[in-house]
Design a protein that fits this description.
This protein is an alpha/beta fold. Helix content is 37%, strand content 13%.
C-alpha cells in the first residue's frame, strides 16, 4: 500500500481507503463488516471513512468497534456532519449547535477521543460560513478533531471557505470528498484546480461507480441476484448507470484491463489515482476478497498510451449523466 499527503497537510492516508456508505450497519451483516475492516487494516489501508447519517450512526458504531483493537494512532478515522439526525429544526445543517452536538455523538458512537478528519457532508446555505468554520476551528483547538474537510462542495464554495479561513485566521480546510470515477468527472474542470490552489486533497467516493466498473453488469443480461443493483436497500443510485450504452463501453474498458493483466476494478481505481490532486479513493466492500482485490490498485501506473485508449472509450458516452 502506498500513501499520499492529504492536500498540503502533513497527514498521510492510504491511496485506497475503506468507506461504509450503504454497507456497514446497513446491507452488510456485522461479522462480514468487521472482517472487511480487519482485512483492510492488514493490507495497509489506514484511511477509514464513515458519516453520522449512514443508517443514523449504525455505520460509525460498527467501524469503531472493529478498529478498537488497533493502536489509535495507526489509522486515520473520518466521519461527517450535515444531514438530519432527528426531526427538530436544529437537527441538521452546519450550525455551531449541530456541529458541536454531532461531533460529541460521533465520538461516543466511534468510541474514540478524537476524530482525525471531520467533514461537512454538504454545504449549508442557511448558516453563515464563518459560523461553520469557527465551530470546526474550535473543535480542533479542543483536540476533538485534528483536521477539517468538506464533501461535494463547489469550486466557489471551496474558494469562499479558503478566503474566510485566511481572513479569520482559522485552520484551513484540508480535503474535499466528491464523487469521482470514469463515468462522473465533473470535478476535473473546476473543483480539482481550485482545491489544489488552496491546498486541499480529494478523498473521492464511488470510484467504481457503485460497482458498475467491476464489469459484473453486462449489456442485455439480467442483473446478478447477489449484486448491489438487486438489493432494494442499496440500489437507489446505481440504476441510472444500467443502460446498454454505458455497459457496452464498460465491456471495452474491461478488455483494456485484461490486456494489462489486471481486473477492471483495479484499472478504474488506478485511473482515479492518476490525478495528483486525489489523495485517496474510497472503496466499499461486502467481502474481504473485494478489499484485497482493490488494494492491488495502489501504486499501479497506467501507461500513457493506455490512458489515451481509455479516453477514446469514455468519449463514446460523454453525454451520460447518472443520478447520484
Amino acid at each position: 500500500m502506498e500513501y499520499r499527503r492529504l492536500g498540503n497537510s502533513g497527514l498521510k492516508v492510504s491511496e485506497i481507503g475503506l468507506g461504509s456508505w450503504l454497507t456497514y450497519g446497513t446491507a452488510v451483516e456485522k461479522e462480514k463488516s468487521v472482517a472487511c475492516i480487519h482485512k483492510a487494516y492488514e493490507l495497509g489501508i489506514n484511511f477509514f471513512d464513515t458519516a453520522n447519517a449512514y443508517n443514523q450512526g449504525a455505520a460509525e458504531v460498527v467501524l469503531g468497534e472493529a478498529l478498537k483493537e488497533y493502536t489509535r494512532s495507526s489509522y486515520v478515522l473520518a466521519t461527517k456532519v450535515y444531514f438530519p439526525m432527528g426531526d427538530g429544526p436544529n437537527d441538521k445543517g452546519l450550525s455551531r449547535k449541530h456541529i458541536i452536538e454531532q461531533c460529541e455523538a460521533s465520538l461516543k458512537r466511534l468510541g474514540v477521543e478524537y476524530i482525525d478528519l471531520y467533514q461537512c457532508h454538504r454545504y449549508d446555505s442557511e448558516t453563515p460560513l464563518e459560523e461553520t468554520l469557527r465551530a470546526l476551528d474550535d473543535l480542533t483547538s479542543q483536540g476533538k478533531i485534528l483536521y477539517a474537510g468538506v464533501s461535494e462542495w463547489t469550486a466557489e464554495q471551496i474558494t469562499d471557505a479558503a478566503h474566510v479561513a485566511k481572513e479569520k485566521n482559522f485552520r484551513p480546510i484540508v480535503s474535499n470528498q466528491p464523487i469521482y470515477n470514469m463515468l462522473v468527472r465533473y470535478i476535473e474542470k473546476e473543483v480539482l484546480p481550485v482545491s489544489e490552489k488552496h491546498g486541499m486533497g480529494q478523498v473521492v467516493f464511488s470510484p467504481l461507480a457503485q460497482g458498475i466498473l467491476t464489469g459484473k453488469y453486462k449489456p442485455g443480461q439480467d442483473i446478478p441476484s447477489s449484486s448491489r443493483a438487486a438489493n432494494q436497500e442499496t440500489n437507489r443510485w446505481i440504476t441510472s448507470y444500467l443502460n446498454d450504452a454505458v455497459l457496452t463501453s464498460v465491456q471495452k474498458l474491461e478488455n483494456i484491463a485484461q490486456g494489462l493483466g489486471i481486473k477492471l476494478s483495479q484499472l478504474a481505481l488506478a485511473w482515479v489515482l492518476r490525478q495528483p490532486g486525489v489523495s485517496s479513493a474510497i472503496i466499499g466492500a461486502s467481502r474481504p476478497e473485494q478489499v484485497e482485490e482493490n488494494a492491488i490498485a495502489s501504486g499501479f501506473r497506467i501507461p500513457e498510451t493506455i490512458l489515451e485508449e481509455i479516453e477514446s472509450v469514455l468519449a463514446e458516452i460523454k453525454g451520460f449523466v447518472p443520478i447520484w
